[in-house]
Q: What sequence folds into this?
């Protein structure tokens, strides 16, 4: 396996007496995309928050480049980990260029220029537009540009495609794939299993706060655990290139 | 244009008064400082107008920080109860014989009152789960009502001299005290310090505008920053309350207008809000002196007449936005 950059071991997290994450261990390796899948309430977002240090585990721990996450100075950690949140709605109506500057602020001296960053994310023509006037796809690109401005070696995305149409979702996943191909360690929470299988190197299937299986996409898609966890009998349709797509079948719940 | 407002406010404040002057009369008084009237203007009206400018700038800065911290365009020192808290602290300092000099007790108790009241409002608003606009405003209204009742009780129970009761009453209704030149220098220095304090909080306030989660992932220690910003705003509100009494709505209007003109980034917003607040209060203070001569109407009344409708407009806009 490639070099592990971010690792969570035996992570437990409890809220209001009920365990949201229960003994999960996982690792993000350089050059690879880890897809985190599972039904609603499986603990995927909580796991992401534990991995980026937004929540502190009741037991277990997270290391970034071999060093415990809490030991990293906050600013350095902010430049090393990029987090694309599930929901993002700024409280003020920032312009795109203002948003990008806030992202670039944490990049330090090696930051790309604003124009270069905007060009890379196809935002050059809308730099002066306000957030409230942007389409869903433009918002996703603007947020991604702000989060990824310091070119972080670790990227965690929590359902970044949830509000996007099919084309925009594929484009965003392709962007995350390119980041990994460029050397970043990427984890992404995805609801669309086909999207996850298409763009990820490994899949972590979660259920009720526990890791059910972590393996390469083909193995996870064929596992009967997938049908059990989602309470659905999936139809597995083979593709000419050797892959497969899943179609939800009869509910077993 | 925004930075011309203090100049316009200064001119209006100097001309308006129990005896309203024309620009030509003012010029004549300034060029001939030997007359009793010019002495009066220089020793009384000029420091008063400049103090009003400082009070306005401080209220605007306090409002800008509160709006940034609570990410709420309706947050302001008066509505959040922090000005009311400062007023209770100052009332105690004015009416109770304390073992510390009044010059120290007044700002200290005003600061503690502003700080305590703000945290109380925030804690009450958070009981509802999150500090939403409605929760924050309702908590602010409730705390402000309790503090006003407490202040009235203290005034009735503790004042045994008519003079001190009158002083507290006129100050509670909002009114800039005419300072001596050394006092004005201190107030000006504190105002400059408040602008610098506001600027130092700018980046954190901008990040908070992205939401607590994103701000945290962008490197902001959110809890510590919020505590620090509330402390700074309470200090600024306390200074403004000690010098200007309870003056409502300036802390709401000035940051709003600055945001409309400049955008939401706080580094540019802070000095613009301060300039608007300074200009606005100098003008309102002039009107307060000029409307019913020789009597003065309370400054807080003038700002409420302008700021109340402004607040309702902003509230309607926020409700429409959901």
A:
């Amino acid at each position: 396996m490639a070099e592990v950059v971010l690792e969570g071991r035996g992570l437990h997290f409890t809220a209001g007496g009920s365990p949201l994450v229960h003994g999960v261990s996982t690792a993000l390796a350089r050059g690879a995309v880890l897809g985190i899948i599972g039904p609603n309430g499986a603990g995927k977002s909580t796991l992401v928050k534990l991995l980026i240090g937004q929540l502190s585990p009741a037991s277990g721990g997270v290391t970034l480049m071999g060093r415990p996450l809490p030991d990293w100075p906050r600013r350095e950690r902010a430049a090393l980990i990029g987090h694309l949140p599930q929901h993002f709605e700024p409280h003020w109506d920032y312009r795109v260029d203002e948003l990008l500057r806030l992202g670039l602020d944490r990049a330090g001296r090696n930051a790309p220029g604003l124009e270069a960053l905007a060009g890379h994310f196809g935002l050059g023509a809308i730099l002066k537009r306000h957030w409230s006037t942007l389409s869903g796809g433009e918002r996703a690109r603007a947020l991604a540009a702000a989060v990824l401005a310091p070119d972080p070696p670790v990227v965690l995305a929590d359902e970044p495609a949830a509000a996007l149409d099919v084309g925009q979702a594929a484009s965003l996943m392709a962007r995350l794939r390119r980041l990994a191909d460029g050397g970043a360690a990427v984890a992404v929470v995805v609801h669309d299993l086909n999207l996850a299988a298409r763009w990820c190197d490994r899949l972590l299937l979660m259920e009720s706060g526990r890791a059910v299986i972590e393996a390469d996409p083909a193995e996870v898609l064929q596992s009967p655990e997938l049908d059990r966890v989602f309470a659905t009998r999936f139809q597995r349709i083979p593709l000419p290139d050797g892959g497969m797509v899943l179609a939800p079948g009869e509910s077993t719940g | 244009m925004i930075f011309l407002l203090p100049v316009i406010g200064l001119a209006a404040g100097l001309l308006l008064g129990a005896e309203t002057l024309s620009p030509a009369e003012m010029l004549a008084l300034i060029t001939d400082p030997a007359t009793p009237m010019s002495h009066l203007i220089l020793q009384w009206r000029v420091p008063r107008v400049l103090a009003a400018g400082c009070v306005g700038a401080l209220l605007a800065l306090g409002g800008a920080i509160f709006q940034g911290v609570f990410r709420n365009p309706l947050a302001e020192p008066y509505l959040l109860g922090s000005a009311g808290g400062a007023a209770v602290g100052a009332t105690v300092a004015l009416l109770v014989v304390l073992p510390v000099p009044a010059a120290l007790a007044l700002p200290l108790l005003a600061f503690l009152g502003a700080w305590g009241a703000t945290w109380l409002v925030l804690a009450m608003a958070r009981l509802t789960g999150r500090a939403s606009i409605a929760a924050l405003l309702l908590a602010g209204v409730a705390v402000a009502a309790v503090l006003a009742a407490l202040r009235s009780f203290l005034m009735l129970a503790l004042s045994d001299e008519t003079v001190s009761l009158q002083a507290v009453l006129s100050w509670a209704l909002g009114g800039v005290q005419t300072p001596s030149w050394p006092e004005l220098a201190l107030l000006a220095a504190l105002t400059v310090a408040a602008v610098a304090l506001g600027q130092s909080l700018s980046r954190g306030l901008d990040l908070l505008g992205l939401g607590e989660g994103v701000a945290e992932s962008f490197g902001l220690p959110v809890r510590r920053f919020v505590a620090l910003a509330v402390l700074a705003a309470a200090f600024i509100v306390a200074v403004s309350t000690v010098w200007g009494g309870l003056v409502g709505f300036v802390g709401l209007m000035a940051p709003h207008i600055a945001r409309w003109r400049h955008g939401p980034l706080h580094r540019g917003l802070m000095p613009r809000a301060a300039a608007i607040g300074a200009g606005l209060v100098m003008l309102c203070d002039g009107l307060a002196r000029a409307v019913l001569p020789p009597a003065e109407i309370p400054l807080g009344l003038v700002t409420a007449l302008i700021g109340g409708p402004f607040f309702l407009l902003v509230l309607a806009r926020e409700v429409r936005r959901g």
Notes: The domain at 4-247 of chain A is CATH 3.40.50.300 (Rossmann fold). The interface with chain B takes residues 52, 54, 74-75, 77-79, 81-83, 85, 88-95, 98-99, 102-103, 105-106, 147 of chain A (CB under 8 Å). The longest strand of chain A covers residues 4-15.
